[in-house]
Amino acid sequence: MLKISKADYDLIRWEAKRSYPHECCGILLGNVTDEHRVVTMTLPCQNMRTDSPVNRYSIHPEQVIAAMKLARNRSERIIGFYHSHPDHSPHYSSTDLAEAHWFDCSYMITSVERGIAGVTASYALVGSETQKKFHEESIEILANQSSLLYAT
To answer: Three-class SS string for 134-146?
Structure first.
């Protein structure tokens, strides 16, 4: 299960709407406790894909490294990533699976239909590089507020 504050959940959905018709993307920091991933900070990132940003995303390695350093300073870790699917369902694509490499992390996807954020789903990446798969996981939206940092 992925636990996330309402503020962070709303931010991800706003980013998906703002980026339409391109995919948005970002990093989730937090902790893992009792088989739950708990988001403590959402880091929106720039989609670096120039060849097909309407159906692909890429986070610059420098942003990932900065997120790792920030997480370490906060005694946390990267627990997931998010992106949007403009005019498509929030179900992961074969490309999403092929390009996912952070095991035991959550991958949140928000569908955006004609500029309106729709359903948000989350999947945990499990297995190994040769036999990886996504398992759908539930999302619990928490009432407490979260801190926010824009990664650029």
So the answer is: EEEECEEEECCCC
Residue 59 has pLDDT above 70, yes or no: yes
The reported pLDDT for the residue numbered 149 is 45
Assigned token pair, 24: 């948005």
Structural domains counted in the chain = 1
Which residue(s) pair with 77 in the sheet? Answer: 30
CA distance 92 to 119: 13
Q: Tell me the pLDDT tens digit for each residue of 94-123.
A: 999 999 999 999 999 999 999 999 999 999
Question: Residue 89 pLDDT > 60, yes or no?
Answer: yes
* pLDDT beyond 60 at 51: yes
Those residues whose C-beta lies under 8 Å from the C-beta of residue 3, and which sit 6 or more positions away, are 36, 37, 38, 39, 139, 140, 142
CB atoms within 10 A of CB 25: 25
The one-letter amino acid code at 65 reads I
Residue range of the domain that includes 77: 2-148
- CATH number for 69: 3.40.140.10
β-sheet bridge partners, residue 37: 2, 32
